[in-house]
User: What shape does this take?
Amino acid sequence: MNKKRILIIDDDVPLTLSMKINLEDIGDYEVRVENSSLKAVAAAREFRPDLILLDIVMPDLDGGDVSAQMKSDPMLADVPILMVTALVSNSETGSDDVVSSGDQLMVAKPIKFDKLVHAIESRLAGEL
Amino acid sequence: MSSLHEESLLRSRGDEGSPRKGLRILCIEDNEGDFVLVREHLRDAGFEVAPEVARAASLKEAITLLRDEGKRGSGFDVILLDLSLPDSHGPETLDHVNQAAKDVPVIILSGNEDRDLAVNMVHRGAQDYLPKHFLSGDLLLRSILYALERQRSRLEMSALNGRLTQTTHDLKTAQMQLIQAEKLDSLGRLAAGVAHEVKNPLATLQMGVDYFSRHVEDIGDSGQMMVEHMQEAITNADRIIRGMVDYSRSDSLKLELRNINVIVRKALRMVRHEVIRNNVKVDRHLATPIPAVRVDEGKVEQVLINLMVNAIQAMGSAGRGNGERPLHIETFWGQLEAIDRDLGLRDYDRLRVQDHAVVVEIRDQGPGIPEDKLTRVFEPFFTTKPTGEGTGLGMSVAKNIIDLHRGHIQISNVENPRGLRVRIFLKAYELTDRMKRLTPSSALPSSET
Assistant: This one.
């Protein structure tokens, strides 16, 4: 079975590393990390991910800006993006740590690994 | 001698342009002879138009007369009062009369010349104290005209004082709103900042715990127990941080999904008196269907009322003829092409490029705001209104409230027709697929401020 390619864009180095180790550890994913929001689009064009995990609060460009760049790039416009954010409160997330803002869906940090995998799989299946 | 005074006083009664009327004088006097004497003095006093003199022979009769006249709205211009009446005696007589006719000046006519009583009467609100045996036409004329003039000044001053009190009250209210909004805003920013800085490390710890939980065989029983404790610690810390964010938000706004058109209509109802008073025509275009917005209805309604009143007043002071001036209120929605970044508020739920947004637009045909002042309108205490008419806090409060909603407020001068345009952008919620297909083909205009 082909491994799904996941691109993680987040400026937090320890976090991206630990996510990469976990995702690769279960054997279903091939993961690339990009810690600079400015290089996000180039990394995505090169890596051709099946899904992007995108942090929102980053220096230089934030997740919204990066997402807008992806959407306007014909090669990347259809790649599903799962936003990851630290800025949610109890009242805003359901039991699955998924929150909607306007017409976007995002997962909350810190998220338990099995919930993250579930969110990734749902997004890949087009359910989220 | 006093004809100039008299003229100005008669004009001040609001009869300009209409045939001049004589003063209406009520003489409260039980002694028939004294009354006749006063009436004759008044006739000879040299008023340009002869005054109309009515008589009440007792306090009771006087009060009935004053109340009836008051109800009819005609009223007396001045009261001449004898303190010794069959049903009332002394200083209290003045108090009763003052109570029955608050704004009518009273001149005391007294049978004796008592200096102490005279001073006492003036302290109690009488305009003058005239001993009857000194009465003459000249004296009465002068006393009445001065009394009227003083009364007019007093009323003007009390009206000014009323306006001052109202303005002070408005200023205090607005100031409180501003302080409240700013306090909540800083609390929200602080909570967001702390949450971000603490949750990222928590997320890393969570990934570590999850990794070791999958490899219990490598860490042994003690290791597994430590991992469980670590998991508990992460969960607790996360709960506390979320609670903090919750507190800073729930305390400030009661956010609920609402239809903005309903709020716009409510605000319009609240300003309808201003609309009528300023002869303004409301030109309303509310888009349907429209996505929901997540707002504190009361606060957003307050913002809309502030903006509408500003727009209406701007047209009022522009003084453009007598025709009806349109207040343009519009709602629409679409996808954002660009938006200003507020680096202080990098929340996950703030408006971003490509978000769907609902927009309320309020446009007037007033003089607009000079371009060099446009950037300052959101500063506290900045106002373009004349002194005393604006607190300079309305727009500042409006921006704070919209910021708390993670929305965006934009203000610009427009041409054809010339005027000021204010737009409020709020994130769109509950977009149905049908709505998405309906999305206006052109994306929302980019932010200009």
